[in-house]
């Protein structure tokens, strides 16, 4: 799973940053506190654009309903155009539409102190690496949330412009001045990854499914996408509202994350208000009565197919670049045994064969 390049809590009372990178990635470690007062802030940074962030909490926070989520546009911090908000009051996901003017920046001198910022060429201090940042603040902080885990939803995940340049043996990496530019290569990567996911019905990055509806079965149901990273909420319609159920084998339901099967651990054959009697509940009283929110996707760190996915994406992106852009100033010309046209044909044939191997057939109960 792709981790944050950098994630900090700005602790205003101590006038210093708290590095949360290890805590965000370490599943078995102790939870760490987040925003404790209104002057604290969370900074989340990545070397590429991202459109969502996931948080798993140990202690639920109590903040204002809509925290402020901001991005840096090259000169100032602006509000992110949120499509789904998140208030650190449960495990959940915040989503936004990626701004066109999002710019990279170093965190040096953003706050009153640079204490505890990572140093070096890959750090966030002077001479470090400029990143895309999201800043979170709250106007009300009653109870500080404690975080067990957090990760970004990167715009692309299977290959990178640097890997593409290395595969093509280019004289230089892609940049804002090359043809294609680095942003154009990133767009091609996103398109190719979309095709891989659509064709294979699998994904090797985190994805969020919001309010999917299912028919009720008293024995359980199967999620449309798996493996499941986290089932965030399961609720059942009672005729007037959704009742949120509790997770656990001794509670209302549990989730087999590998298969997406969600057994209902109780038959729930009690006279809910929306049943005609105890024996008809779950047999069509309400259509699409189950509502589910969940995060799904394969983890490239432990999935055996991750290397194949990178190979497919790299070859298909490289083929598109050679076929559609003026590469003559970038690609070295020598005494190659095969012409570029032959190489492109071989790359595409190889990628299509491997893509077929990645394809899955999914069956689920509607």
Q: What distinguishing features does this structure have?
A:
alpha+beta, 366 residues, 3 domains, single chain
Uncertain ranges: 269-281
Q: What is the CATH top level name of the largest domain? A: Mainly Beta
Main beta-sheet strand count, sense and barrel state: 6 strands, antiparallel
Order of helices and strands: EEHEEEEEEEEEEEHHEEEEEEHH
CATH third-tier fold name of the largest domain: Jelly Rolls
Helix fraction bin: 10-25%
Query: For the residues shown, what is the average pLDDT?
Result: 89
Percentage of residues in strands: 25-35%
Radius of gyration: 24 Å
Number of domains: 3
Q: Strand pairing plus helix content: what structural class?
A: alpha+beta
Shape: flat
CATH superfamily of the largest domain: Galactose-binding domain-like
Oligomer status: single chain
At CATH level 2, the architecture of the largest domain is: Sandwich
Strand order of the largest sheet: 2-1-4-11-7-8
Tally of contiguous helical segments: 5
Distance between the termini: 29 Å
Number of strands: 19
Briefly, what is this?
This protein is 19% helix and 27% strand. With 366 residues, the protein is α+β, with helices and mostly antiparallel strands.
Task: Give a topology summary.
Blueprint: E1 6-11, E2 16-19, H1 21-25, E3 32-33, E4 41-46, E5 50-59, E6 62-63, E7 68-72, E8 77-79, E9 82-84, E10 92-96, E11 132-137, E12 141-143, E13 146-154, H2 161-167, H3 182-200, E14 207-214, E15 220-222, E16 228-237, E17 242-244, E18 261-263, E19 290-296, H4 306-324, H5 340-358
Antiparallel strand pairs: 1-2, 1-4, 3-13, 4-11, 5-10, 5-13, 6-12, 7-8, 7-11, 9-10, 14-19, 15-18, 16-17, 16-19
Helix pairs in contact: 2-4, 3-4, 4-5
